[in-house]
Amino acid sequence: MEPYNFKKTFGNPITLYTLGKFSLPFGIGLARLIIASVTFGLMLLFRGFFLAIGGLIPGLTPVLFVGIPVLVSHFLLRRDPQGKKLHYYLYDLFVYFFSIYLPKKKYADDKELMYHTETEVTFEPLIRKITEKESDGDEHGEIKNASEDAPQQLNVNKVG
Description:
Helices cover 40% and strands 11% of the residues. The protein is of the alpha+beta class.
């Protein structure tokens, strides 16, 4: 008996046609329902802001509380999560946004660049004492006894 590949079966989204005793005339995806519920919960958490916006135009508040969760769930489900599950993708996106994008960190070869914001580089002066061995040269610093015509010594095929 050959094994059955469940990837195609489990890859299909779960669709709900009934919610408790209520029968829906169309199916709604479970992922869309969860995303819309989380968005609606966040909107309720910050309801003062949304009520202030809704107070500008009469009747805008119900449109905001229904439209924003539907649009956010539509946008997130149309987004390509790069082969990941949606909740893992959103978690990675939040980690990237708050730990790399907002602090404006730069990376090279998987290491953080420490001084990429510096605009001017200053060097400390180097104080070097010249020994007698190095002071053999003339005023230009060239060594007097250097022989440019010396034969080259090769170590190729040398035994020992």
